TrEMBL record:
Gene3D superfamilies reported in the protein's UniProt record: ABC transporter involved in vitamin B12 uptake, BtuC
Major subcellular location class: membrane
Domain of life according to the entry: Bacteria
GO molecular function: transmembrane transporter activity
UniProt protein name: Fe(3+)-citrate import system permease protein YfmE
Subcellular location: Cell membrane
Biological processes per GO annotation: siderophore-iron import into cell
Topology in the lipid bilayer: Multi-pass membrane protein
Any one GO CC term of the record: plasma membrane
Naturally occurring in which organism (per UniProt): Cohnella abietis
């Protein structure tokens, strides 16, 4: 790290924190019913009312999901050395989506409490399948990325098949697949926050290994690094972060794909700087997207996954056109 990058990092973190505070205030105040600032403070102090019971847990979940998906994407791009790697590209979110669709459409007697566990289990199974397919005398980054794309495509096809077969009753599954924070409660917060805290800490502590993985394969082996164990551990961290996010809110796309690129443009490719920047940017994006989804067409809510896609897709195309998506993560 040079002094210039450190200064840019500090300025970026300061701006991101300011944006996150603004996003938090707007998220708590705006919605189907706009809450005055004085009432907001009163309800938070008394731990009662629409702010504390409904909007605050939804806000916390939005911050956790943005953090999880952004860090998971940054780690996967580092492991695969592929700038197009992300949880929603290599099959992790598709696995959670398929498990949820099967539960909703094929098991009518399901209870809402079962959804997060099915989604998390599906994400874990998809990640495990990608790892098994990619493993051949070790893990090669390109093979891992290609196997992830193949698994993701296959799972999406199966999801589409279920949607078509059960189309009259597929509305709830479609909302889940688009990613939504509607009706999220403190129970969902309790489910998600431990994964966010532990996964984020483990990822931040792994920045040295991620920086090493940016080197060539021969250089890594020459350094004596047990590369396959390192990659496996980092993949597990990514799957845990992304899987818990899918379990809490469904498939929210483009965060893990676009946010790490934006972080690298702002602070450079050193993961010591990229990971915390990605976490903050992801949190800001999801909180803003959820707020916009609630206020743009009241009383109808636009799922947060649609808003993030509308924001992320044009920015990703911009990066492609400008040639700023580089081969190294």
């Amino acid at each position: 790290m040079n002094i210039h990058n450190i200064r840019r990092f500090r300025l970026t973190i300061l701006v991101c924190c300011l944006l996150l505070v603004i996003a938090i205030v707007l998220s708590l105040r705006l919605g189907a019913v706009n809450i005055p600032f004085a009432q907001l403070i009163e309800e938070l102090t008394q731990r009662d009312g629409i702010i504390y019971d409904y909007r605050l847990p939804r806000l916390i979940i939005a911050v956790c999901i943005g953090t999880n998906m952004a860090i998971a994407g940054a780690v996967l791009q580092g492991v695969t050395r592929n700038p197009l790697a992300a949880p929603d590209v290599i099959g992790i979110t598709a696995g959670g989506g398929l498990a949820t669709v099967i539960l909703i459409l094929a098991i009518p007697q399901f209870t809402q409490s079962m959804l997060p566990f099915f989604a998390f289990g599906g994400s874990i199974c998809a990640g495990l399948l990608v790892f098994i397919l990619a493993y051949q005398k070790g893990i090669k980054p390109n093979r891992l990325a290609l196997c992830g794309v193949a698994v993701s495509s296959g799972l999406q096809a199966v999801i589409t098949l279920f949607i078509v077969k059960y189309s009259p009753s597929a509305s709830q599954a479609l909302v889940w697949l688009k990613g939504s924070l509607y009706a999220r409660t403190w129970d969902h917060v309790e489910l998600l926050w431990p994964w966010t805290v532990v996964g984020t800490i483990l990822a931040l502590l792994s920045y040295r290994q991620l920086n090493v993985l940016l080197l060539s394969e021969d250089t890594i082996l020459g350094l004596g690094s047990k590369i396959n164990r390192v990659r496996l551990r980092l993949i597990i961290i990514s799957v845990a972060l992304a899987g818990s996010a899918v379990a809490a809110a469904g498939n929210i796309g483009f965060i893990g794909l676009v946010i790490p690129h934006l972080a690298r443009l702002l602070v450079g490719s050193d993961f010591r700087l990229t990971l915390p920047t990605s976490a903050l940017l992801g949190a800001v994006l999801v909180v803003f997207a959820d707020t916009v989804g609630r206020i743009v067409m009241p009383p109808i809510e636009i799922p947060v996954g649609i808003i993030t896609s509308l924001i992320g897709a044009p920015y990703f195309v911009y990066l492609l056109l400008k040639g700023r998506i580089v081969g190294k993560a």
